[in-house]
């Protein structure tokens, strides 16, 4: 570990290390934070909770010098500080993983981990030592990747682990993680938790943000809840029930917050008629080896598997975004040319992709235009677009998904992370596809909107849409899907009926833990009722 | 169904194969210009007896050395995701200042042009980095400014300052060491330093990070503004030094030099495999790009019947070919 040169005094475990007092921040007149008090103590894991757009990321950016607060102050180790840029906060000993994976895709993994603090020899970067340290760090995290490979070639999950390695590689007093688990599988989440607990035990203060609420009780000591840019509550995690948390976060009575299942998905759907999507022998060089998949209208089929099992690749290949070496895809009985996105779109296939930042969102267009983008051809007559119809459509989706924006004309770039996701979901939902491929549709969005998206998927399936659902949240798969196809190394390994399946059984199946749980209702292909 | 225990060896094999293929594709991308360069040189050596002569090859190397200096600075600028249109004018200005300065001593011939050109680079860098203005516009203004200053100094180009006979300043570009002209040695040294700076210093790492993803570089705490300012200063200094070299070589401050040279420098950088969007590339690739352009000029001069205007036609065609090839390869690679 490189020694940290900080001027701030040492902080005893349990004492405040990083604080805001009455912090206010507005963006062109819109209040993002309003008099927020926040206190992080040394040796605790503190979670920031709130709906999409509540101001969590903004608070983190104020704490770390990305934004200068309009009012109020930031204190670090008991002293008022004015970080003018992220570098200032880092040099003071605050390590941050920002919400969007913020690394440089064209540089190698090792470079990304050590950018700005590379190991030196004779004043020059010691590439050998850098790669070696990077390899050690990744090994510690249990991630087996080539550290000299370009970062951009890795999946989002691996990229998040690289960001974690970067945060770990310095000796920090405060580590802040804004939704670090959104693209991680349970194994990686476990690793991250282990690392986080290790840091806490060494007296480091940690801030943790996640919309996967269950994680919070597992990891965090205290919670601060924000709503609409205002502080609502701070307290020990153990004394806060899920119901309380959600009700405070949404600003509704406890009774109003239903305590139903873990998700908003309803019962299984009736499936009818000819299959809407038939995939046979889909083969993508090095990734997929003969994947078969059949989805009927009104059916939700889940794809499960570990990192690198080929789930995203399967839907991408069906959508034509990945070139298939062999295999056939047909929609509603008609063959679709593989490897052509236009062909897939024309036959009614839509894909909500995993990497929404890279594929889809147009940051400088307005919310309205982003939603309308895909439906424009349908909404226009003789080239003339019906503005009124688009406005109506945009309005419906903004209400339904509770997209928090100052107006439909706000640039998507300015929305909070979760609200950007909602805009993309709205865009694809608006196209009314025949086959909808959803890759992690609820990633990064808050409980309220999650329920809404789940209900929407359900509703669309009721109306006869064929859905393929990928999710790393087991509850979502088990409750949302009628059938679950388990992938392993690009093969279909098993097909499970989800009716009587529990999340833990699915997890066990994924881990290949059949011997340990012989009762697990695993059926091989074609045997399900 | 196959066994469920993941075998690390088999699960990694496809990853490794993929990485190898990607490596190969990016190798071809980076060395595309080198391949064409080798072919052109081979064909030229066979076709013209005069081409491979020591005299001709030395001539090519010296002729290329001036553009090489500009292209080296341009490489760093482009890697940060920027562009520097001012270098052609700054190059000419440096030459005129050096020639004028040499009348007051060799030291002045070095210091004066570098100070003025460095100042131009500094202002451009500050406006781009601090003010956040687009490099295209700022350096376009720099182009006009430097050219205007040059015309003022030389009575609208009518006065050509001469380097005094017997001045040691002439040695810089006309002298040689063990038969190798100094300009060639300087280029080799500068490019070696450039490569070292790019790959082995934190400044170089910042350059690549900024070009790759500027927001991320900022969030990672890299000195984004300082790096950009330094890069534009370096570019202007190298252009100015190119001017100093050519003043020494021609023993005068030629005022009509450098028109469109910034575009040649950009062409050389892109030929050398540096992404025009920034974030990736090599210094040595740029050197190959410069040499390729120079060899094409030379070959067309050798064909007596061809007008020298064909130089641009051929260079342009090759540039288009290489860029198309690069794009095609990156696409294959991303699949
Ligand atoms: N650069 C900006 N310009 C304008 N408005 C902004 C900007 N950044 C944030 N906002 C607004 O500030 C509010 C808070 O956003 P913030 O990103 O802090 O939310 P969040 O709690 O992190 O949400 P999420 O869970 O979706 O990440 C949002 O309404 C957002 O639109
Ligand atoms: Mg956020």
TrEMBL record, chain A:
Residues 18-253, 257-514 form the ABC transporter domain. Gene3D superfamilies: P-loop containing nucleotide triphosphate hydrolases. Keywords: ATP-binding, Nucleotide-binding, Repeat, Transport. One of its GO terms (molecular function) is ATP binding. It comes from the Bacteria. SUPFAM superfamilies: P-loop containing nucleoside triphosphate hydrolases (SSF52540). It holds the Pfam family ABC_tran. This is Sugar ABC transporter ATP-binding protein. It comes from Nocardioides oceani.
Automatic annotation (TrEMBL), chain B:
It comes from the Bacteria. Coiled coil: none annotated. The chain crosses the membrane at residues 31-48, 60-78, 85-101, 107-129, 136-154, 180-198, 229-249. It is found in: Cell membrane. InterPro entries: ABC_transp_permease. It is a multi-pass membrane protein. It holds the Pfam family BPD_transp_2. Its main location: membrane. Keywords: Cell membrane, Membrane, Transmembrane, Transmembrane helix. PANTHER family: ABC TRANSPORTER PERMEASE PROTEIN YPHD-RELATED-RELATED, INNER MEMBRANE ABC TRANSPORTER PERMEASE PROTEIN YJFF. This is ABC transporter permease.
């Amino acid at each position: 570990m490189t020694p940290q040169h900080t001027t701030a005094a040492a902080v005893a475990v349990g004492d405040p290390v990083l604080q805001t007092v009455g912090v206010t921040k507005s963006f062109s007149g819109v209040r993002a934070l309003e008099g927020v008090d926040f206190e992080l103590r040394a040796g605790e894991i503190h979670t920031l909770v709130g709906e999409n757009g509540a101001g969590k990321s903004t608070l983190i950016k104020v704490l770390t010098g990305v934004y200068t607060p309009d009012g109020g102050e930031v204190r670090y180790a008991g002293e008022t500080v004015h970080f003018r840029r992220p570098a200032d906060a880092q040099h003071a000993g605050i390590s941050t993983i920002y919400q969007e994976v913020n690394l440089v895709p064209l540089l190698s993994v090792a470079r990304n981990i050590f950018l700005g603090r590379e190991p030196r020899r004779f004043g020059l970067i010691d590439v050998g030592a850098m790669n070696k340290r990077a390899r050690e760090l990744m090994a510690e995290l249990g991630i087996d990747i080539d550290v000299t490979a370009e970062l951009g070639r890795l999946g989002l999950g691996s990229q998040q682990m690289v960001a974690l390695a970067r945060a770990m590689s310095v000796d920090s007093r405060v580590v802040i993680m804004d939704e670090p688990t959104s693209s991680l599988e349970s194994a990686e989440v476990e690793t991250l938790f282990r690392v986080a607990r290790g840091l806490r035990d060494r007296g480091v203060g940690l801030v943790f943000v996640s919309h996967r609420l269950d994680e919070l009780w597992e990891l965090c000591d205290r919670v601060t809840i924000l709503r609409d840019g205002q502080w609502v509550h701070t307290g020990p995690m153990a004394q806060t029930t899920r119901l309380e948390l959600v009700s405070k976060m949404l600003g509704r009575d406890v009774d109003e917050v239903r305590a139903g299942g873990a998700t908003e998905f309803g019962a299984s759907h009736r499936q009818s008629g000819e299959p809407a999507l038939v995939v046979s022998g889909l083969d993508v060089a090095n990734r997929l080896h003969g994947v078969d998949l059949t989805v009927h209208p009104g059916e939700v089929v889940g794809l499960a598997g570990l990192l690198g099992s080929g789930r995203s690749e399967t839907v991408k290949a069906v959508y034509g975004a990945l070139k298939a070496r062999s295999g056939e895809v047909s929609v509603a009985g008609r063959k679709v040319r593989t490897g052509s996105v236009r062909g897939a779109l024309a036959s009614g296939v839509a894909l909500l992709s995993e990497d929404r930042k890279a594929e889809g969102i147009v940051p400088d267009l307005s919310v309205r235009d982003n939603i309308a983008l895909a439906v424009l051809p349908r909404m226009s007559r003789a080239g003339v677009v019906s503005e009124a119809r688009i406005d109506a459509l945009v309005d419906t989706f903004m209400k339904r998904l509770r997209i928090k924006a100052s107006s439909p004309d706000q640039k998507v770039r300015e929305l909070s992370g979760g609200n950007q996701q909602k805009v993309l979901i709205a865009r694809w939902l608006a196209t009314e596809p025949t086959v909808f491929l959803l890759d992690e549709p609820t990633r990064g969005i808050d409980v309220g909107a999650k329920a809404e998206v789940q209900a929407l998927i359900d509703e669309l399936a009721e109306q006869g849409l064929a859905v393929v659902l990928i999710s790393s949240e087991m509850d979502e798969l088990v409750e949302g899907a009628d059938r679950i196809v388990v992938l392993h190394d690009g093969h279909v390994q098993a097909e499970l009926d989800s009716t009587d399946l529990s999340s833990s059984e699915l997890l066990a199946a994924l881990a290949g833990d059949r011997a340990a749980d012989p009762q697990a209702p695993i059926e091989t292909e074609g045997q399900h009722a | 169904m196959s066994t469920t225990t993941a075998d690390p060896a088999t699960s990694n094999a496809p990853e490794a194969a993929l990485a190898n293929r990607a490596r190969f594709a990016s190798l071809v991308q980076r060395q595309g210009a080198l391949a064409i360069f080798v072919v052109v040189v081979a064909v030229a050596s066979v076709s013209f007896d005069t081409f491979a002569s020591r005299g001709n090859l030395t001539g090519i190397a010296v002729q290329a050395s001036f553009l090489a200096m500009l292209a080296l600075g341009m490489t760093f600028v482009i890697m940060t995701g920027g562009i520097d249109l001012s270098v052609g004018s700054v190059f000419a200005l440096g030459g005129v200042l050096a020639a004028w300065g040499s009348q007051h001593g060799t030291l002045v011939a070095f210091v004066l042009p570098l100070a003025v050109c460095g100042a131009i680079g500094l202002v451009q860098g500050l406006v781009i980095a601090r003010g956040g203005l687009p490099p295209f516009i700022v350096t376009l203004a720099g182009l006009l400014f430097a050219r205007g200053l040059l015309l003022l100094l030389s009575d609208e180009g009518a006065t050509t300052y001469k380097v005094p006979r017997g001045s040691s300043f002439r040695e810089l570009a006309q002298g040689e060491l063990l038969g190798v002209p100094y300009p060639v040695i300087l280029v080799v040294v500068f490019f070696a330093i450039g490569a070292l700076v790019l790959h082995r210093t934190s400044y170089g790492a910042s350059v690549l990070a900024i070009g790759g993803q500027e927001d991320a570089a900022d969030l990672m705490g890299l000195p984004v503004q300082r790096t950009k300012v330094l890069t534009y200063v370096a570019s202007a200094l190298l252009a100015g030094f190119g001017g100093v070299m050519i003043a020494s070589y021609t023993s005068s401050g030629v005022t009509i030099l450098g028109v469109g040279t910034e575009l040649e420098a950009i062409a050389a950088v892109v030929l050398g495999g540096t992404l025009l969007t920034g974030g990736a590339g090599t210094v040595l690739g740029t050197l190959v790009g410069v040499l390729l352009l120079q060899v094409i000029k030379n070959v067309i001069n050798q064909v007596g019947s061809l007008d020298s205007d064909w130089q641009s036609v051929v260079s342009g065609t090759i540039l288009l070919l290489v860029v198309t090839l690069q794009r095609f390869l990156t696409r294959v690679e991303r699949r």
